[in-house]
Specification:
It is built from seven helices and two strands, in the order αβαβααααα. With about 160 residues, it is mostly helical. The chain folds into two domains: about 60 residues, no CATH class; about 100 residues. Helix 3 crosses helix 6, helix 4 packs across helix 6 and helix 5 crosses helix 6. The longest helix is centred in the middle third of the chain and has 14 residues. It is globular.
């Protein structure tokens, strides 16, 4: 599995295109480049280009209010989001709670609750798909358990880095 700098898991993510986009920027001799992602999702290409210095800044947006809320929370509610990541148990009970919160807040843009519940589900659901069930199944009898893709330290580190 490819390692990405994104805090999100996306099947079919675009991170592997970052070398291609970087090459396009170089070939076209584009300077002071701003990379704009209208449908950012995990923003794999944008983050890679920014962190490697290929672009000066990035602009992220997403039509999905839940995804927008994750990025909004990372940038505008960093401490609160990190506290939720740190203190929320990664259990099937928490999964049910976050699923309910997500259903009740997914239409709210710029919502910390929506952002965290979406992040939680993305990291604990099969293949990172928000509407999929939990890794390991509802009874947690699968080979992998619900917490296997939720490395709190790594997610917190990424979120601190992006908030800067």
């Amino acid at each position: 599995m490819a390692v990405t700098k994104s805090p999100l898991r996306y099947p079919g993510g675009k991170t592997q295109l970052s070398n291609f986009v970087s090459n396009l920027i170089e070939i076209n001799k584009i300077e002071e480049c701003i990379y704009i992602e209208p449908f950012s999702g995990g923003a794999g290409v944008a983050i890679e280009l920014l962190l490697t210095g290929k672009v000066e800044s990035i602009v992220l947006n997403d039509y999905d209010k839940a995804i927008h809320s994750i990025w909004y929370s990372i940038l505008n509610h960093t401490s609160e989001l990190i506290n939720l990541i740190r203190t929320t148990p990664i259990t099937i009970g928490s999964w049910y709670e976050q699923k309910m919160i997500h259903e009740n807040t997914k239409q709210f843009q710029n919502s910390l609750e929506n952002g965290f519940s979406t992040l939680f589900l993305n990291r604990t659901n099969r293949s990172g798909i928000i509407n999929a069930g939990p890794i390991g199944g509802y009874d947690q009898k699968g080979n992998y358990k619900i917490d296997c893709r939720f490395n709190k330290k790594a997610i917190i580190k990424k979120n601190r880095r992006y908030s800067k």
